[in-house]
Design a protein that fits this description.
The protein is an alpha+beta fold and 275 residues long. The protein contains 4 helices and 8 strands. The protein is 42% helix and 21% strand. Strands 3, 4, 6, 7 and 8 form a 5-stranded antiparallel β-sheet that branches.
């Protein structure tokens, strides 16, 4: 023990302390390097985890977007199917088929199902140029005030609207808006709006029925009636005179008449004796 104490002196102790300090520094440096590596690894793992989280979030967002698109497509398909089965009530103003000089208001359900509680609003209120024969304005008709309870598919209603050529006099409005609401098998049907402009008919036959053309049509009709009366009179005259038209028969040949012959009997002449 004494030898060990004698061996340890100040210089040796200083060297030992320095060696221990160096070892401590080396250990600390190694520990710091290891900690740095661990920190970098942890940082790399954190970045990788963050990227995975971002990737997962993007995948979730994409999945949610796909789900939303699928729901929208299914909703649009369902809406299209419902609309295809909903009634469709149309309103229009057309020339009458049996009289091109008359306008008629047409209401028709062209959809595949029954329309219920049909309500039609018109603005501005139409004014009939030819006057209201029953004293009731067009917008006061029951089809506008009370509506239509039911309209089966292809059901069509026609109303006298106005006289064509009178409609285009000055000061008469010819632009109307009809709004139609109805109920179908899936509840309220989509609201339909029809903008009708009668001015496009001004240059057609319905708007050109002037007095001169009416007179021409009357003269044409008068000529046709006169020709028909003349033909009837000629037919009556022929019947009275016995020249009624009968099937023509070829005259019978005399040779074919029973008891009649066309052959002639030739008598021999008397001959004088020669000599």
């Amino acid at each position: 023990m004494k030898d060990v104490i004698d061996w340890i002196n100040v210089e040796r102790l200083s060297v030992l302390v320095a060696a221990l300090a160096l070892l401590g520094i080396v250990y600390s440096w190694r520990s710091a390097q290891a900690a740095k590596s661990s920190a970098e690894a942890a940082r790399s793992q954190a970045a990788s985890a963050r990227e995975q989280v971002d990737l997962g979030r993007r995948q979730i967002d994409l999945l949610l977007k796909q789900i939303t698109q699928a729901e929208d497509a299914q909703r649009a398909l369902r809406q299209a199917q419902e609309e295809a089965l909903q009634p469709m009530v149309v309103v229009d103003i057309l020339p009458a088929p049996n009289d091109r000089g008359v306008m008629m208001l047409v209401i028709e359900n062209i959809g595949p199902s029954i329309a219920r509680n049909v309500r039609i609003d018109v603005s501005p209120p139409p004014v009939r140029a030819a006057g209201d024969p029953n004293g009731k304005a067009i917008h006061e008709w029951g089809v506008f005030t009370r509506g239509i309870r039911t309209m089966p598919p292809r059901h069509r209603m026609e109303f006298f609207f106005d006289v064509g050529f009178q409609r285009f006099r000055d000061g008469i409005n010819n632009v109307f808006t009809f709004v139609v609401n109805a109920e179908g098998p899936f509840g309220p049907a989509p609201e339909l709006t029809y903008e009708i402009d009668l001015e496009v008919m001004r240059e057609t036959w319905i708007g050109q029925a002037t007095l001169g053309k009416v007179i021409q049509q009357m003269e044409k009709g008068t000529r046709a009636i006169g020709e028909l009366a003349e033909a009837v009179s000629r037919l009556d005259s022929d019947r009275q005179s016995g020249r009624a038209v009968t099937p023509h028969k070829a005259p019978r040949h005399p040779s074919r008449v029973p008891g009649h012959s066309t052959s002639r009997v030739v008598k021999p002449r008397d001959r004088k004796p020669q000599g």
